[in-house]
């Protein structure tokens, strides 16, 4: 299965200046628990936003830069090549950024969204999820607290 995973604001914002514009520790824990021991597919800018490769995951980085070769990563030049490297019998995760989400949407089976209940000034956005193509099958509300400045909801969508 190809699973897209993202934290998205009410206005579909993902981030600004190659960084998130909110901090939700429970969402980071959920991301880690879902993606650990799986292939993760991302664009070069998303990969470069990490201080180091994420442990216990196979990193596939998509870039047009022919000389790009970060240690511990598989580098390809298309979403099709990235997906072809993922084991069919396992879940693989598309983790961003905005351009990669748009390219990967036609290949995606499941979308795992953390909907952050706020709007943000951003320069990167998640694609719109068409209600005619996607069905919401699970939703779990979470409320702001001392570690989370915003209410947020975990949502799972499957392709119709």
Automatic annotation (TrEMBL):
All copies of domain DHFR, residue ranges: 1-159
| Keyword NADP listed | yes
- Name the GO terms of the biological process aspect: dihydrofolate metabolic process; folic acid metabolic process; one-carbon metabolic process; tetrahydrofolate biosynthetic process
Q: Which UniProt keywords apply?
A: NADP, One-carbon metabolism, Oxidoreductase
> Would I find Oxidoreductase among this entry's keywords?
yes
Catalysed reaction(s) here are:
(6S)-5,6,7,8-tetrahydrofolate + NADP(+) = 7,8-dihydrofolate + NADPH + H(+)
Q: Which domain of life is it from?
A: Bacteria
- Quote one Gene Ontology molecular function term: NADP+ binding
- Name the pathway: Cofactor biosynthesis; tetrahydrofolate biosynthesis; 5,6,7,8-tetrahydrofolate from 7,8-dihydrofolate: step 1/1
List the GO cellular component terms: cytosol
Pfam families in alphabetical order = DHFR_1 (PF00186)
Tell me which Gene3D superfamilies the record gives. Dihydrofolate Reductase, subunit A
Q: What is its EC number?
A: 1.5.1.3
CDD domains, sorted = DHFR (cd00209)
Which enzyme type, at the first EC level?
Answer: oxidoreductase
Concerning its family, UniProt says: Belongs to the dihydrofolate reductase family.
Q: What role does this protein play?
A: Key enzyme in folate metabolism. Catalyzes an essential reaction for de novo glycine and purine synthesis, and for DNA precursor synthesis.
Name recorded for this polypeptide: Dihydrofolate reductase
Query: From which lineage does this chain's organism come?
Result: Bacteria, Pseudomonadati, Bacteroidota, Flavobacteriia, Flavobacteriales
């Amino acid at each position: 299965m190809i699973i897209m995973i993202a934290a998205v604001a009410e206005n579909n914002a993902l981030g600004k200046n190659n960084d998130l514009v909110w901090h939700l520790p429970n969402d980071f824990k959920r991301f880690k628990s879902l993606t650990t021991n799986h292939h993760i597919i991302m664009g070069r800018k998303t990969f470069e936003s990490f201080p180091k490769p994420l442990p216990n995951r196979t990193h596939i980085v998509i870039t047009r830069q022919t000389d790009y070769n970060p240690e511990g990563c598989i580098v390809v030049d298309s979403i099709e090549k990235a997906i072809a490297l993922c084991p069919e019998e396992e879940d693989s995760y598309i983790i961003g950024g905005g351009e990669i989400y748009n390219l990967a949407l036609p290949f995606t089976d499941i979308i795992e969204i953390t909907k952050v209940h706020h709007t943000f000034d951003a320069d990167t956005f998640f694609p719109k999820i068409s209600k005619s193509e996607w069905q919401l099958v699970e939703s779990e509300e979470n409320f702001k607290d001392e570690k989370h400045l915003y209410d947020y909801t975990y949502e799972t969508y499957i392709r119709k």
